[in-house]
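Ligand: fe (ii) ion. Inputs:
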Amino acid sequence: MPADTTTILVLGDIIGRPGMRAVVSSVKSLARKHRADLVIVNGENANDGFGITADDLAQLQRAGVDVVTTGNHVWQDDRIGELLDREAFLLRPANYPGSVPGHGFALFDRRKPPVAVINVQGRVAMPPIDCPFRVSRETVKRLRRETPIIIVDFHAESTAEKEALASYLDGDVSLLFGTHTHVQTADERILPKGTAYLTDIGACLPANSVIGFAPSISVRRSLTLIPIRNEVASEAATIHGLVVTVGNGDGTARSIERIQYSSLV
Ligand SMILES: [Fe+2]
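Predicted complex:
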């Protein structure tokens, strides 16, 4: 792509050890292959399927990941507050109460123009939380003073809620993608005012699994309604995500492509 554009590689929710192995071993070559200037991953399930630790984050950063977004499972580890406060490029959803640790957006300014990343969480079929629409609008307004390139990870269950937020922010952000449901959708497109959109980018998860977890346990949970603890399936992972290219001048999207790779490790 020409130099007046920025290309960003985004990988979906990393599920446990198989997801971590796949991402850590291949993110550099994927970034090179797609000529990505920046890499974003959702890491909220990196630690055995629930949450993320300082060690997980360090491994991802060493492997070439620039920004890590999360979601409702980020709070799993007691030490996460300290980590969220310390790490500028590890995000939690911006629409949690202001008193909770961490931050919901980052301005990645090691390159020009900078790339802003916002993390928000849905509230349809999810725990109650502040309005993602109002919080996104306010955050976008603030970040547009710094850069035209704004990326939104909307960690949400509902397709309708994701499409509605994308329409609401169309033209004001470069890309809005969904995470959380772990299954990649096939509806990538550029909206009328220039925002690239994909309802769910999918996850980095064991290929033979129920959204990343062992099928046998998921079946038992469904048959018995007993909340047996889920365990991450053990097979090698498939990586899902997207590549977006945006204009440096106005931040509008030029292209969006879904990606899927099988990992050998
Ligand atoms: Fe989630």
